[in-house]
Design goal:
By secondary structure, the chain is of the alpha+beta class. Helices cover 47% and strands 17% of the residues. The chain contains seven helices and six strands; from the N terminus they run H-H-H-H-H-H-H-E-E-E-E-E-E. The strands form two sheets. It has a four-stranded antiparallel sheet with strand order 3-2-5-6, with no helix packed on it. A two-stranded antiparallel sheet has the order 1-4.
Length: 191
């Protein structure tokens, strides 16, 4: 499903979309996927995002999935856009990185309407997330004090309160929390 036309863009300003299309060739973005990259990025950033996306698609087609993922990550670090998240998630699914794919698909779904022009894309993203959820455990970390640093399995995940559930691989999960000299950890077994 990941194709060059997977970058879907929508603009209420036809001039923005026309400018992006001319820069995006050969991606040839088509209808309806959330806010445009042009509304989220200046010219230089937009050009870097589109270059990373083009290279990611090229590498994906060649089967160089790790390199493609790296290109999509570069785009994601520059702009949080549902099309970038969806492309990154498709690559992560192929690599078996279900936790990462679930996180990116959740973002893409939150920015995509289940009705109207975006309904088809929404349903596709939902199917992909359902596939991911077969391989991960949902984890909701609640901390009784705001501002605490939260880590899961040694990786930083955010500052409390965490805005959303986390997706982790089944097995032993070490959750650590630290705030102003206080801290603790809890080992969980998740199936």
């Amino acid at each position: 499903r990941l194709t060059q036309s997977a970058v879907h863009l929508r603009s209420s300003h036809p001039r923005d979309l026309a400018a992006l299309r001319s820069e995006a060739t050969p991606l040839e973005p088509k209808a309806a996927f959330g806010p445009t990259i042009t509304s989220q990025a200046n010219g230089d950033t937009r050009a870097r995002v589109m270059a990373s996306m083009r290279e990611g698609f090229r590498l994906f087609k060649l089967g160089e999935l790790h390199a493609a993922r790296w290109q999509f990550i570069q785009a994601w670090q520059l702009v949080k856009h549902p099309a970038v998240a969806a492309s990154l998630a498709d690559t992560e699914l192929k690599l078996g990185l279900y936790s990462d794919a679930a996180r990116h698909l959740t973002f893409a779904l939150s920015e995509t309407s289940p009705t109207g022009e975006q309904a088809e894309e929404y349903n596709y993203l939902r199917e992909r997330l359902d596939e991911c959820l077969k391989h991960v455990v949902r984890l909701k970390v609640l901390v009784d004090r705001p501002g605490a640093t939260v880590c899961v399995n040694g990786s930083y995940v955010g500052i409390s309160p965490l805005p959303a559930e986390l997706f982790v691989a089944p097995g032993e999960i070490l959750v650590g929390v630290r705030l102003a000299g206080m801290g603790g950890a809890r080992l969980l077994r998740a199936r």
